[in-house]
Amino acid sequence: MNNFFEKSDISRSEAENIVSDTLSKCDDGELYLENTKSETILLDDNKIKNSSYNSDLGFGFRAISDEIVAYSHSNEISKNSLRQSSENLKSTLKSVKGTYNHEILKSNKKYYDNINPIEQKSLNEKIKILNEVNNYLRSKDDNIKQVTANFLGEQKSIEIIRSGGESLTDVRPLIRFNVSVMLEKNGRKESGVYGVGGRQSYDFYLKDNNWKSVCDEALRIASVNLESKPAPAGEMKVVLGPGWPAILIHEAVGHGLEGDFNRKKISAFHDLMGQKVASEGVTIVDDGTIDNRRGSLTIDDEGTPTEKTVLIENGILKNFMQDRLNARLMKTRSTGSGRRENYRRIVLPRMRNTMMLSGNHTQDEMIKAVDKGIFAVSFGGGQVDITSGKFVFNCTEAYEIVNGKIGSPIKGATLIGDGPSSLKEVSMVGNDMMMDPGIGTCGKAGQSVPVGVAQPSILINKMTVGGTKL
Amino acid sequence: MVKDQEFLEKKASYCIGLAKKFGATASSVMVNNSVSETVNFRNKKLDESNRSDDLGISITTYIGKKKSSISSSNLLNDNLNILIEKSVETTKNTPEDEFNSLPDKDLLAKEVKDLSLYDDTHIGNDQKIDYLKKLESAASNDKKIINTESSFTQNKSNFILANTEGFCAGYKTSSFTASSVTVAKDEKSMERDYEYSSKCFFKDLDDAGELGKQAADQSIKKLSPKKIGSEKIAIIFDKRIAKGILSTFASAISSSAISRGTSFLKDKVNQKIFSDPINILDKPDILKGLGSRNFDGEGVKTDTLKLVEQGVLKHYLIDTYNGKKLNLKSNGRYGGTSNLYFENGNISFKDLLNSKSKSLYITETIGRGSNIVTGDYSVGATGFLVENGEFKYPINEITIAGNFKDMFQHITLANDLEFKYTNNSPTMMIEGMVVAGK
């Protein structure tokens, strides 16, 4: 466990006193300390292009009164710096009066081990695998013109000190292994990307030459795209494959169900609690408690243990995702969804692993039910306007469906839909629920956090496909 | 207050000395400090105040043609000792790359010109609050506006870049940014829009009332949108969207994408890639320019480049590493462009709107739908239907798609260029794109 005061001119008890004194008339707040060690090792264009190491240390001090948040952060954990932050907070909240809420849930459950993945594998071993990846792919297909592969490893240690001296800690490992390839054939270029990751050691994901299957998948996607023809334009039926395509759920309903947007009544969902927002059979949860998943957290960044939050149950809207601030103002409880990118940023309610649970149809039934439409298997990312409810996501592997049969691959295209209505268009939910491979990152208000998604195959009756073929 | 040059220089030279001591044959160091103060308002009341003080250091160490780098926010000498020793150790274990090196000495910037990038004015929180009160009062004037969130940020930064070729320079910069996001509502719909202003000097910032009114008007205009059918139609990009086309263009001509062969503009220098009258400039020495600079992230002098002349691509954006690989000299574009812009076209905004009986005016796009390998483009969009020069009604839940190779050849620019962002474009029309709707 990190001792944040070891090399500082301020002792733990002095820091606790400053925290308690600063927050005495506030409703909530804490001192958040963070020490992150991270590395990137990148192979590109046949060479190790980058080996870099980052060590980031700092604190963020937050005081909340009613709706007002005062925040101050610094890299220097020192008496001076902490006092200056305290003064900043006090001057913003000089005329307020609140009662500090000491209540915070406790749990002994942990969803990952206290490890430092960076130290568990030597640089030479990592470089060796990256070179093997490069050689393996280039020997597999003559059309390969570019291979990029990288390791990203991180260990983030945090401590939360609340008024009264209560301390909550967590150590979070995280790794990612990505491969991207570019093919060129007859003057045409296409790329394919795949990766794996989560909160375990590199070796867990790479054992038994598992890196080869990551390479194979990236190459397969690129090869499919090399044969792709222009995507259609217009409204049609869409079958989504299981796993990663659950970006749909993340964008279509996930963001719109975050507490802050609903407290402010600016989400398209804010007045739909208890109402039908999806077809019968559609159940969506946001779960921070799945062992070792990228979006899992033992405690959130306010110290609340995470949980499995039911958002939509059998089509009915049941819960929003809450941090402490929005939960208090909406007179409910935190769902352990308070997250921040790092100590520089304020806490916001965020998703963890957002999942649609299995139904009882097969993917085959869905394809057969479509006369004209598309089958989308892999996605690159998405975005939503939570106020209008309109969301997009970008396919990176898709096929046309003609008369109940999968046809030619089509070029990457953007799909657009309306959050509150699109899940009502889900007419079949598959029995093949699958987690994503562990590479998702979600952006909100300029803050990126690791997340997961999962879903079975689904059939959506109507979505607009943004191709070029009319 | 932001740390002074002396403090940053001392840290930089300490690191360079240490790297040498541990066995590096060359090194470069960037030390920066940035102090930001933000006040946020929501619905005419104080919502958040945020102060950040960020120190950072990044060090690249070389042993011959081997290279590795570290970065940290902890500038205590103890920590720097550990990190630099680790960096040199990592460098030893990293394979050689023949193109790794510091920039050629004769390309480094010799002088640091005063480009008027720093305003010493301090805008205290009380002044920020006054500005935001005025802004939010203008933004919430119309009763269709149900939520306003506005923000004022003052940022002061300073940096030093140093390397073992004797380069050591840096300077202070400042920015003052005000923004407002409004939500409008009617019986049928709820829509959000925004406006912002960002300047190096406080006195140049947009008037608070104007900014608020603009943010509100833009949301209100979007209410009760319709979805249109799928068709081929001329697209007019509002300036705030047109500038995004420049960002894609810049990534596609970066020497890294070119040397890796992953750009649709590879091997296109001296070829006509845009329609005839198009000129694109990257001008680093604009006084008070948001993207202005004396040198790039490696210390290489940055001169104005006419990237596209009469539709013809003239230069890539070159850094030291990729330059050596391509056998070209760095043109000071490590980290990308400075103030990148399209020169004005020769018709007015009004004439551009009038030039087609029917067109689609786009004010917002969502999704990252630009593929620089293939040039394919497909994004979600929001905007207005324009008929005979008039805005008819708002449109949403559509996508627009095309391929940049074709789109670039069909650009018409209006003559209404302003320098509001880092990348700037006049209003832009592109013919031949496909809209997917109903």
Summary keywords:
heterodimer, A: 470 residues, alpha+beta, Double Stranded RNA Binding Domain, 7-stranded mixed sheet, 6-stranded antiparallel sheet, 40% strand, B: 438 residues, PmbA/TldD fold, 2 domains, 7-stranded antiparallel sheet, 5-stranded mixed β-barrel, 9 helices, 36% strand
Describe the structure.
The complex is a heterodimer of chains A (470) and B (438). Chain A has 470 residues and is of the alpha+beta class. Chain A contains ten helices and 22 strands. In chain A, strands 8, 9, 10, 13, 19, 20 and 21 form a seven-stranded mixed β-sheet that branches. With 438 residues, chain B is an alpha+beta fold. Chain B folds into two domains: 5-221, PmbA/TldD fold (2-Layer Sandwich); 225-438, no CATH class. Helices cover 24% and strands 36% of the residues of chain B. Chain B has helices at 5-22, 77-93, 125-139, 208-221, 239-252, 255-260, 320-326, 349-354, 404-409, and strands spanning 26-42, 45-63, 66-72, 145-163, 168-169, 172-185, 190-199, 231-237, 280-282, 305-309, 312-313, 340-342, 358-366, 376-387, 390-403, 411-413, 423-424, 428-436. In chain B, the strands form three sheets. In chain B, strands 1, 2, 3, 4, 5, 6 and 7 form a seven-stranded antiparallel β-sheet that branches. Chain B has a five-stranded mixed barrel with strand order 8-13-14-15-18. In chain B, a hairpin with a 4-residue loop joins β6 and β7 (190-199). Chain B starts with a helix and ends with a strand. The model of chain B has no long low-confidence stretch (mean pLDDT 96). The interface between A and B is large, with 78 and 77 residues.
